[in-house]
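Posted in: Structural Biology > Protein-Ligand Complexes

Title: Requesting predicted complex, NAP in pocket

I'd be grateful if someone could produce the 3D structure tokens for the following input. Sequence and ligand are given below.
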Amino acid sequence: MSGGNADASTSVSAATKSHAGKKVFCVSVIGATGAVGREVIQLLEKRNFPVSQLRLFCSERSAGKTFQFRGQTLVAHTVDREALVGSDYAILCADATTARSMAPMLAELNIVAVDNSSAFREDPAVPLVVPEINGELLNSKPILVANPNCTTIVSLMVAAPLHRVAQLERMTACSYQAVSGAGLAGMHELESQARAWASGDKVAGQLFPRPILFNVFPHNSPRQSDGSNEEEHKLARESRRILAYDRLRVSATCVRVPTLRAHAVALHLEFTNAISSAQAVDILSRAPGVRVVDESNGDQPADPQMASGLNEVLVSRIRVDHGGTPGKSLALWVVGDQLLKGAALNAVQIIEQLIAG
Ligand SMILES: NC(=O)c1ccc[n+]([C@@H]2O[C@H](COP(=O)([O-])OP(=O)(O)OC[C@H]3O[C@@H](n4cnc5c(N)ncnc54)[C@H](OP(=O)(O)O)[C@@H]3O)[C@@H](O)[C@H]2O)c1
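-- Reply #1 --
Done. Output follows.
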């Protein structure tokens, strides 16, 4: 067996099913060495998640890397079936191809999985869940749950509470997406370009098709036949699916910007029913997982540095959209840490809700 964290030095207590009367669970993180996986490890510790054993998996590239969890050193291993046996939950933080190849094995082993990739987001048999918005889909106790696209989660955390009150008709979203949306390699690319520039060296792109330092460009996901890119299509399709509202019209322009983490989105929302900016402030002030940045107190509007490391999605600049239907249109500036609420946190919350239910 190549994995399994089986040696005592790499496991956190025994994989018992109860500890001091509290149920505890064996959790496997697949893709633990990446940008999202690392956040999952930290969240499980910070949230005091009831873990009996944490197993960390990666590809051959990073096998042997170590991570601290509750004062112990855990080693990441390559995945194999034997190493997964006995896991209660798996959080998949790898690419879509890896997720597709592993999902059948996880189901066969009766391991409840939450997948961060795009592999199952359009599969009608797999619920696409943001707990604050459509968490009721978890009541059926699915064996596999899809975590939505990060820009979609950040946008809908704010759009959904308003939709519930005034019925959204159209959402225009222009995103400013951090380099960590492309994984650890994206962060390394921006950092190494900054170092190269500071040393007077040539700034060249490897992961991204052109330099990201001092630059912005349309999201480099594959171009679709209508001229949109795949990220823009995901935002449209997944928003309709999560809101269970096929008639929602979505216009998206997704852009990569040279920030390290937290995606920002300029949202323009058009509603069926009247809604004022004061009502929107009131609704969003009460929305779980959302924090209104109150500029009337002199606070600056939210920015990616403010949102980095926060569980909540920040919303500011809540105002009338003067280009929309009078009384029914709002413009908002939304910023959320896409590695947290846009990925790792949402996945952990899904499992917490499954356990609680
Ligand atoms: N980054 C975001 O903001 C974000 C937001 C929402 C969703 N997502 C999705 O979350 C997933 C992870 O993204 P990321 O940003 O964390 O990417 P990343 O930093 O590139 O990490 C990818 C992880 O997958 C592992 N991996 C690759 N092939 C594997 C295999 N065959 N078996 C086991 N592990 C394998 C990698 O291991 P090695 O270290 O060995 O390469 C690494 O741990 C992706 O599907 C992404 O689309 C990302």
